[in-house]
Amino acid sequence: MNKSVRHVGACVLFALAASHPALAQGDKAVDAANATWNKAFNSGNAHALAALYDEKAVVSPGNGKSIQGRAEIEKLFKSFFDAGVHDHTIEVIQARHSGNTMYQTANWTAVAEKDGKKSQYKGVLLSVMIKGADGRWHVTAHTWNAMP
Q: What is this structure's pTM?
C-alpha cells in the first residue's frame, strides 16, 4: 500500500512538473532556438549563423582550442560550409531554462559531402544561450565533440 501511494505521488509530481509553464516555455524556447540555428546552418550562410551568437561568445569545436567573437565564429562555420558540411540536426537530451539563461546538452548530426563522397558525422554538444535586450536568444558558449 505504501509503495502504491508513493507511486501515485510520483506520478502527480511528474504531471505537475510537465505542465509547469516555465518548463514548457523553456522547452519551446530551446526547440525554437535550435530550429533557427539549424536553418541558418543548413542555408550555408556563415554570417547569419554567427549573428545568432552573442558578440563575445566562446566556441570550442572539439579540437582542444576555442575561439571568441562573431567574426571568428563566422570564419569557423564558413570553413565547414567550404568543406561541404550540411544537413545539421539537433536532438535535445536535456535542457534547462531559468530567466534569461538556458542551456542544453544534445546530440547532433551533419553530413559532409566532398567530391561526390558523403560522410556522416555526429557528436554531443553543450550550448548556453542568453536572452538579449532585443528579446532574442543568443548563444554565449558552445562546445561539441565529433566522430565520423
A: 0.80
Domain holding 28, by residue range, is 2-144
- Ranges under pLDDT 50 in the chain: 1-25
128: helix, coil or strand?
A: strand
Q: 2: how many CB neighbours lie within 10 A of its CB? A: 6
CATH of the domain at 130: 3.10.450.50
The total number of structural domains in the chain stands at 1
Residue 10: its pLDDT value, please?
31
Q: How far apart are CA 23 and CA 146, in angstroms?
A: 29
Contacts of 1 (CB under 8 A, 6+ apart): none
Instruction: Write the burial class of residue 141 (CB in 10 Å: 0-12 exposed, 13-18 middle, 19+ buried).
Output: middle
